[in-house]
Amino acid sequence: MPDPLRLGLAGLGTVGIGVVKIVQRHADLIAARGGRPITITAVSARDRTKNRDADLSGYAWESDPVALARRPDVDVFVELMGGEAGGAKASVEAAIAAGKDVVTANKALLAHHGQALAEAAEAAGAAIRFEAAVAGGIPVIKALTEGLAGNEITRVMGVMNGTCNYILTRMESAGLSYDQVFEEARQLGYLEADPTLDVGGIDAGHKLSLLASIAFGTRVSFDKVELEGIERVSIDDIRLAADMGLRIKLLGVAQMTGRGLEQRMSPCLVPVDSPLGQLPGGTNMVVIEGDSVGQVVLRGAGAGQGPTASAVMADVIDLARGTRLSTFGRPAASLVAPVPAKATAPAAHYLRMTLQDKPGALAKIATALGEAGVSINRMRQYGHPDATTAPVLIVTHKTTRDAIDVALKAFAGTGVLASEPVALRIEPV
Ligand code: NAP
Ligand code: HSE
């Protein structure tokens, strides 16, 4: 019998306990697939007394994850604590310095420190694997680094934050406001400890930046992702979109163009009957386009104990087999710093605003659009909530976000706005 692969597990929350359950439930199956037994030697969390819905009696306890990472009886350090700094960063660095392989679900850590960690790992002869960090249970990292390795990737896009997708679909199905569904999501435990990571698009932006690095051979550049969250999407937007056969999704798109690397994460409108439009609740979808393969669509649970632990175990089993890949699919030193490019592909845009209900107000908005070079396709003034303001919806012909931004700036100077306008791209998918 070959020697077991010994794990040190830092983090015994949703994902960590999911990993414990799989290791215990499927010991024979994973030993057969990995070619050797996989065992847990020691674990770490903050509170040793917490009831954790799993039998941890066979594992040593370390209150300090850095000490866990350095233990000589740990071959692979599994970091499931979270956070871009603090214990997660210190312990991953300690594991790498000790020459140990690392498996992590921590997209924030890699989005901020991926390049430095990848370089350190390669120098130490260690591997970093992070399947669980992007789109939960969907094997998208494996698809990009292995299954599609023979392709020049032209575009990666998708819905990568289950919480935002839950909020947007629930608002539509229940006719509830953003604030009502946000509160529901909080009570269901769907939101990150800092909810702006979810609803501000930051968590999804982290994930997009990791996929872009693998897809385009660039250094992870989260700070260059154009980010917009879903906080300003209202039930009115959702209803008006539905009237036009469209649905709002927090959509990420990364593509390499002649001008540089475009990375954007923002609420967009997609056709209701498209695969993205049909995506329910907490589900994620990643679409990858390659020059030889064409389009590949991956869909599945983007979060949760079972799906995320499933992805962690895929990495662990790969390490047990001896599969060793560079962190981002090619040597860290060969990853180039990308030239960031603003997305310029034209698209129709949806604009919603509330105007002062007085003569000439709409004309001022139409003039601002015309002067910005934006052509109106459809325009509608609908139900007045009061006698003094008028809600207005405008759908433009294809135009760039830059032109829309020029128009929005001009709107602000018209003196007829009663609320800040909402502008959403209608994504051709
Ligand atoms: P969680 O339920 O909040 O669990 C975090 C665990 O880490 C807890 O057991 C906590 O200890 C422990 N911990 C935190 N700081 C620590 C420290 N300094 N030292 C020792 N232990 C520490 O988080 P989670 O949902 O499992 O997420 C873990 C990671 O997976 C994160 O990076 C997250 O972004 C990622 N992820 C999660 C999901 C998901 O569906 N939950 C999906 C994909 C990726 P206590 O229990 O004692 O407080
Ligand atoms: N907060 C994340 C989401 C967890 O909602 O998708 C999974 O990464």
Task: Kindly summarize this structure in a few lines.
This protein is α/β, with parallel strands linked by helices and 429 residues long. Helices cover 36% and strands 24% of the residues. It contains 14 helices and 16 strands.
Lay out the secondary structure:
Layout: E1 5-10, H1 14-25, H2 27-34, E2 38-44, E3 60-61, H3 65-70, E4 76-79, H4 86-97, E5 101-104, H5 107-124, E6 128-129, H6 140-147, E7 153-159, H7 162-174, H8 178-187, H9 196-199, H10 202-216, E8 226-227, H11 235-243, E9 246-257, E10 260-271, E11 283-290, E12 294-301, H12 305-321, E13 349-356, H13 361-371, E14 376-381, E15 389-396, H14 401-412, E16 422-426
Parallel strand pairs: 1-2, 1-4, 2-3, 4-5, 5-6, 8-10, 10-16
Antiparallel strand pairs: 7-9, 7-11, 9-10, 11-12, 13-15, 13-16, 14-15
Helix pairs in contact: 1-12, 2-12, 4-5, 5-10, 7-8, 13-14
Describe it for me?
Strands 7, 8, 9, 10, 11, 12, 13, 14, 15 and 16 form a 10-stranded mixed sheet that branches. A 6-stranded parallel sheet has the order 3-2-1-4-5-6, sandwiched between helices. It contains 14 helices and 16 strands. The mean pLDDT is 96. Helix 5 (107-124) links the parallel strand 5 (101-104) and strand 6 (128-129). The chain is elongated. It has 3 domains: 5-133, NAD(P)-binding Rossmann-like Domain (Rossmann fold, 3-Layer(aba) Sandwich), CATH 3.40.50; 141-301, Dihydrodipicolinate Reductase, domain 2 (2-Layer Sandwich), CATH 3.30.360; 349-426, Alpha-Beta Plaits (2-Layer Sandwich), CATH 3.30.70. With 429 residues, the chain is of the alpha/beta class. L-homoserine binds next to helix 7.
